[in-house]
Amino acid sequence: MDAFAFFEQIYCINLDRRPERWQVVCRELDSVGILHRVERFPGIEHEHPRKGCALSHMACIEKARQDGCRNVLIFEDDLRWRVWEKDLLGRAVEVLKRDTRWELFYLGGRLQKQARVISPEVLESRLWSSHAYAVSHRAYERMAEVELPLDVWYSQTFYSYCIRPMMAVQAKGFSDIKGAYLGKKEEKFNEYYQKNTRYVEGQLSASPLRRLLVRIGMRMARLQAFLRSLPVGKSTYR
């Protein structure tokens, strides 16, 4: 079974001035057999890069809504597969088919609270990141109220699931949103959240030190979210 068949539309956001990133992400998409299904969406440029990013995501979701799609899968062009297990995604999709509560479904991201196990393959939690996620039609209407930063607003607004273990990460390199190179420090920060899902979810035993480090890491992440929101603020736009 093609697990990606569940997703009625698939977009990948890529700025016109970054053709090299499109070439790389095409290889990632082709490696899991979905390149032929993915529609490139030209990223929207804006003087505030975070707003341009949010506008690009909202445009993808609005197009899916207008086309009558019950869900849409969105990638950013810095997608990289950390692991790829076709059967794992297939089992997670079966959960999504039966469960009518989910609004966002992440293939990767940073967990922001202790997660709840929905199934062996699916967790319920708040997450950051927007490089690989699906949106249900149940979330379409509230997208008009979007605030910045996009991924933080997502985590505070929608009922979100994520795959377990997480499959998609963001590649290191120059970030158009941050205007800086995503180097080793940020890369390690991403990997910390990706690899420690099993401890954050609180379902497997962990040492007291590990639990303390996870709590410290999540508090640092919340502080980072606050700092990220300062340059642009929480401007709501329609």
Question: What order do the helices and strands come in, and which of them pair?
Answer:
Blueprint: E1 10-14, H1 19-31, E2 38-42, H2 49-66, E3 71-76, E4 79-81, H3 86-98, E5 104-106, E6 110-111, E7 116-119, E8 122-124, E9 127-128, E10 132-136, H4 150-157, E11 160-163, E12 168-170, E13 173-175, E14 180-182, H5 184-195, H6 197-200, H7 208-229
Parallel strand pairs: 1-2, 1-3, 5-11
Antiparallel strand pairs: 3-10, 4-12, 5-10, 6-9, 7-8, 8-11, 13-14
Could you characterize what this model shows?
The chain is α+β, with helices and mostly antiparallel strands. The protein has one domain: Spore Coat Polysaccharide Biosynthesis Protein SpsA, Chain A (Alpha-Beta Complex), CATH 3.90.550. It has helices spanning 19-31, 49-66, 86-98, 150-157, 184-195, 197-200, 208-229; strands at 10-14, 38-42, 71-76, 79-81, 104-106, 110-111, 116-119, 122-124, 127-128, 132-136, 160-163, 168-170, 173-175, 180-182. The chain has an 8-stranded mixed beta sheet, sandwiched between helices. Residues 198-205 and 232-238 have low confidence and may be disordered.
